Amino acid sequence: MPSTASLEKLVYIKINSFVGVFHVNKMPLNYDVDIYSQLDNPWDSIVRFLNITLREMGWSNGDQEEVVMDVGCGPGRLTSEFILRIFPNLKKIIALDAESNMIEKARCLHPHPKIEYDVANFEDRSLIELWNGKITKFISVHCFNRMQDQKGAFQRVYDLLPPNGEAGFVFLLHNGYYDALQYLAKDLKWCSYIPFDIEDCIPKSHAKGYTSFHYKKMLEGIGFEIRHCQQVQNVTTFLSDELYTDFLYSVCELTPYIPNDVKKDFKKDLLHYTLKQNGRNDDGTPVDRTTTLELVQTKSRGIHHQYAESSLFGFLAKTECPCSRAHGQLSLTSRVPTGLSGPHVGMVWML
Ligand SMILES: C[S@@+](CC[C@H](N)C(=O)[O-])C[C@H]1O[C@@H](n2cnc3c(N)ncnc32)[C@H](O)[C@@H]1O
């Protein structure tokens, strides 16, 4: 019989065959793991970060045996096909996800003798601290936007690393989808189905308009030295409304609470409100616009020193300036890497 405390801590809600899990200190999450893993193609910018940026930072140098932690590993494709290959001298990867269905999928689709997949909510310190000081490289892709207490989560990363250990992140700062959730929560058709405060689903960076400067200051305050900090605008064209709707629906936090008989109508409104923010191309195809942040940071030895003004800082100042358009903007268009297919046919980087 679970104790009252554990009941308070963990409430399972099972509706329409989806399972949503609420923890104290965890955002409401929903992933339809089957749809998610079918659409599981990393963006160009993620591939670039893993294959180019991290290697340029010396992550592949291989002179020390690496113990890597990947938090929010999802169905494991990124872990096994990209992250694993960065490290020629790998001892093991501890790949964690808060959702047990993601870990089951990862163990089934992407097993590897050097990858240990485990269910763990990174917001729960007690599940993580056994690795304190033992993780030489920490990585997390598209997950830290899901942390309710981001500063606490970054502090846990600091505690996991030994001096000179490094961490790399990519996570979402803004997307019109989160405005769509707020519209849906106010819409009389849908508000009665939503059993939680919609604000609990909105990343603080989106709600408060945080940019890279906010994170740089936070991380330096914890004691990290920033090696790379870059805001990237990802513009992704989906080939049809149906594909974009399926993608949104597969990750939408409200999906588990919408009864089957009104699902079609809900999907229509989800797309409508999202496109109100994200827009369409001239040819009518739907567009997803996500601002992400890329970070690479080192746990300094001893007392952390102040971030020196450098060319990187100059670059950041340019990206952050509200009138960056007036200062000029570099746009790169890139194609989906060979061997990857999927909806990400268009990508613009605004530096
Ligand atoms: C968008 S998926 C990204 C999966 C994978 N990293 C990728 O990029 O393909 C985000 C994952 O983070 C997990 N997640 C969210 N909050 C988490 C937390 N507090 N602790 C651990 N995992 C979490 C979700 O369950 C989900 O599988």
UniProtKB/TrEMBL annotation:
Q: Do you know which CDD domains this protein is assigned to?
A: AdoMet_MTases
SUPFAM superfamilies cross-referenced by the UniProt entry: S-adenosyl-L-methionine-dependent methyltransferases (SSF53335)
Which top-rank group of organisms is this from? Eukaryota
Q: Give the protein name, as stated in the record.
A: Methyltransf_25 domain-containing protein
Q: Where is the Methyltransferase domain?
A: 68-165
* GO MF term list: transferase activity
Q: Give the Gene3D superfamilies listed for this entry.
A: Vaccinia Virus protein VP39
Record keywords: Transferase
Which Pfam family is one of those matched by this entry?
Methyltransf_25
